Amino acid sequence: MARYIDADKFYNNYSDKWGLEYEDTGEIDRVAFAISHAPTADVVEVKHGEWKRIECGTICTNCNRVYDNDFEFSYKQIKQYFKRCPDCGAKMDGGKANDL
Ligand SMILES: [Zn+2]
After folding, report:
1. What is the pLDDT of residues 18-56, one digit of tens each?
2. What is the pTM of this model?
C-alpha cells in the first residue's frame, strides 16, 4: 500500500531537527533536491471535523453546515450514520489531523 507524505512538512521538520547538524555537509540541500524531484501522486487532503449539537441543530465543525434536528435528521441519526459531512466531506473523527 502506498504511503503519502506532506513534502513541505517533512522538509521543514527535517531541516528544523537536523539542519544545523548537517548544514556544513550539504545534506540539507541534497534532501531538498530529492524531495522537490520526487514523483508526486494525485491525492486529496483529508479534512477533519466533528458533529456538535447547537441550539438550532447539529453543526459540522469544518464547514459550519447546520442540520435542523427537527426537519432533517436528529443529532443521534447524524452521529450514527454520517461518518463524513455530506457537504464538505470532512471525516468526523473529532478533528484529529495527521500532523508530524
Ligand atoms: Zn462539513
Report:
1. 666 666 677 777 878 888 888 888 888 889 999 999 998
2. 0.63
Give the relative orientation of helices 7-22 and 27-36 as an angle to the nearest 10 degrees.
Answer: 170
| Whole-number Å distance between alpha carbons of 96 and 18 | 27
The closest alpha carbon to 85, from 54, 59, 55, belongs to: 59
Give 44 Cα–ligand 1 centroid separation in angstroms: 16
Ligand 1 center to 76 CA (angstroms):
17
Quick one: cell of 10?
517533512
pLDDT of 58 reads 95
Q: What is the largest CA-CA distance in the chain?
A: 65
pLDDT exceeds 80 at position 16: no
CA of 89 to the centre of ligand 1 (A): 6
Type of residue at 84: R
